[in-house]
Amino acid sequence: MSKTLETFLSDSEIKTFDANYRKTIEHNVVQYDKKVIEGKEQFSNIELAKKRAAYIKNKSIENLDKYLIEFESNFIKRGGKVIWAQDAEEAIKESLEIIHKAQAKSLVKTKSMVSEEIFLKEALKKNDIEAIETDLGEYILQLRNEHSYHSVTPAIHLSKEDVAKTFNEIKGTPLDWDPQQITAFVRHELREKYSKADIGLSGANFLIADIGAVAITENEGNGMMSTAFPKVHIAIVGIEKIIPSLSDLDLFWPLLSTYGTGQSLTAYNSIYTGPKQQEEADGPNEMYVILLDNGRSRLLAKVEQRQALSCIGCGACSSVCPVYQTIGGQSYGSTYSGPIGSIITPHLKGMDEFKHLSYASTLCGKCTEVCPVKIDIHKLLLLNRRDSIQEKLVTKTDNWMWHFWKKAMLKRSKMDKGGAKWKNFMIKQFFKKSWGSRRDLPQIAPKAFNQIWKERKEG
Ligand code: SF4
């Protein structure tokens, strides 16, 4: 068993039996469900909106090369710089070069899954560059030295009491502070950081090809502050974030906010077309967009599975997933968790090491049902399972087990062989470990239905 799988199993078990965690997450999920129902009311025909969004994203992914070049040529027209990074190492190297060139010692950072994907924070720390998270959820997690729990609501697993305790322990604030008091405290702390930071670092929700721009959606205004004050803005963005046109935001912004948080529209939606222009009062002097591949081309090459790149990162599939709700986002051991994370992580980081995520699903299909860009999520999970078998990544025991199972299932006489006692013994041999010690293994009935039926007919 690989170390990654071992950690996944043990972390999942801890979370599954943590009653406090279950209570917090259940409360937050109920709130989320209610809000999404309200958010959907703004669409006169939500199914049509989803179909259109799926069409646009599929078109973008099928023509990724064309749209990325279009984005680049339009973005550089206004003085922006585009850097293509093949992998995490290149993206970090390029980011550090920009940071060193600007002689920067600190940067303010908005929420960005891509920067977590490439372990940017760790690289900055090694280079003595202070990186301050400015999204409230991420700021809390930075204090707790934890990774994001959820792509949209990173600290959804924490109760207000957990957060107050964290601030009390680390910042010395009163233990009975409510969320408003804590938010005001963080806002005050961050003001100073914004004005002193040399660099603003962000991700992006969309890359807009026809105007060469980066679109960022957020609820706290921290994204705007992080990119308006510092002299240099670096946006690190996955290549799949491309959409053809500015007018597509008319559909994607409300869809993203509805399925992400249940809002009609997220509070702050900004479009950045490059560095400050002569007639503009504020903004960075330099703006860089680092276009990150890091395994996305590998996924793009798989015709049946490339639709996973259409993901707009709303997090809805995670929010409704029974497995995710049970084991928690951090147990996945990958930047992208939940159903979509289980699909893309094996392609981005290696099927051998992360194939188990594609098995961590009940295949109930709820993820596919909610996805605003109609990604066939549970089918893609099955295709990953198929790939892992075709690539011979399953254990010999698994192979033997399924070989015998298939043989038995194809012939009644073989199926009946051995009797219930022997079958229960074999089930115990094969499944006891993975079934765990907290529940009883299912038992084969003493008499098969086939046998009962025969006896009844004869009788
Ligand atoms: S796969 Fe669909 S539901 Fe899941 S995060 Fe992406 S867009 Fe949202």
Please give a structural write-up.
It is a single chain. Among the domains are: 42-294, NagB/RpiA/CoA transferase-like (Rossmann fold, 3-Layer(aba) Sandwich); 400-458, no CATH class. Helices cover 55% and strands 10% of the residues. The longest helix has 22 residues, at 19-40. The N and C termini lie far apart (51 Å). The chain has a six-stranded parallel β-sheet, sandwiched between helices. A four-stranded mixed β-sheet has the order 8-5-6-9. The protein is globular. The chain has helices spanning 3-16, 19-40, 46-62, 64-77, 88-101, 113-117, 120-126, 136-144, 160-171, 179-196, 222-228, 249-261, 296-300, 316-320, 322-327, 338-349, 351-354, 356-359, 366-370, 377-390, 396-409, 412-416, 419-435, 449-458; strands at 81-85, 106-109, 130-133, 199-202, 206-208, 213-218, 232-238, 242-243, 268-272, 286-292. Bound molecules: iron/sulfur cluster. Iron/sulfur cluster binds at residues 259, 311-317, 340, 370-373, 375, 377.
